[in-house]
Amino acid sequence: MAMFSKSADKELPSFIFISIFVIIIIECMVGVIANGFILAIHVAIWIQKKAVSTSGRILVFLSVSRIGLHSFMILEISFVLTVSLSFYKDRLSKLFQVSFVFLHYCGLWFPACLSFFYFMKIASFSSPLFLKLKWRISGWIPRLLWLSVLISFSCSMVFFKDTYTVLINYSHVINIYNYTKELNYVKTNVVSVAFFLSLGVLIPLIIFVVAATMLIISLKRHTLHMKSSTTGSRDLSMEAHMGAIKATSYFLILYFFNALTLFLIISNILNASFFWYILLRIVLAAFPAAHSVLLIQGNPGLRRAWKKLQSQIHLQLRADSEISN
Q: In 3D, which of 163, 155, 180, 24 has the Cα closest to residue 93?
């Protein structure tokens, strides 16, 4: 994965440079909070009921991977601003990069599993094969999740040895509040990793797109059948279906751009300037956070728990304010 780029961009003003990193950190913090909330709710249910739903199991895996991913992004920014170039030459750097790629791959495979599960459970088709899969999908999900972890780990390990050639190519000096920091931009020369890119990015992308598209088609078809009646429960049901169609469409768009961005960064196709490097990193940080927020908004149980948490926080802050006064 390219950590930096080679093009000699015009010197960026310090406030722009800091603003970009602040944006990424805010996205990461939103992601950590949202995924921490999702994880806490499902772990609490798991402990209380000694069991968790299939979708809850997927969300636990997804939340853990995204908390790790956003934490690594924050660490990376800290290293960029505080650690010398020697960091990118030692084994610690390779371990850091492999972990980063592994978490990104998990961040593609787990949503693909979630999209496939929702498609199998919600969609309605009369195909015998579909009906057979529909009955068995819940039992397959745990194995699919661990298979996703194995695939992600295997694909990321190719980046550990003899994959990166780090070359100093351009330096940029910033002066922030009388503190001078020289940032050395390097380029990464990636060898033949097309197979691993396909397995880690292309396959989960295909699964997600096909499952989400088929789910939208099924929901749309069912909505058209209900349009003959627009009152009572049918009206509410139709609104729920339309909401599901919109949410799935948003997920599909976000997921596609995230997969494309990850592919561009890992493959280094653009051989991008520092501007493109930063833009791609912003997109990579935005998808997990936005997707997790949408998951909370789209799940009635999570949405109720979030509103209850907000209410409790508001009451606690009000009580603390009254005590202090």
A: 163
Is residue 49 classed as helix, strand or coil in its secondary structure?
helix
Asked if 1 and 188 touch (Cβ cutoff 8 Å), the reply is: yes
pTM exceeds 0.85: no
Q: Are 75 and 99 contacting, i.e. CB atoms less than 8 angstroms apart?
A: no
Q: Which secondary structure element, helix H or strand E, spans residue 183, and what is its range?
A: strand 179-188
Rg (CA), the chain: 22
Counts of helices then strands in the chain (DSSP H, E): 9, 2
CA 21 – CA 87 distance, rounded (Å): 20
**Which run of H or of E encompasses 184?**
strand 179-188
pLDDT band at 4 (very low <50, low <70, confident <90, very high): very low
Span 146-205, pLDDT tens digits: 999 999 998 888 776 644 443 334 444 444 444 444 444 444 444 445 666 667 788 899
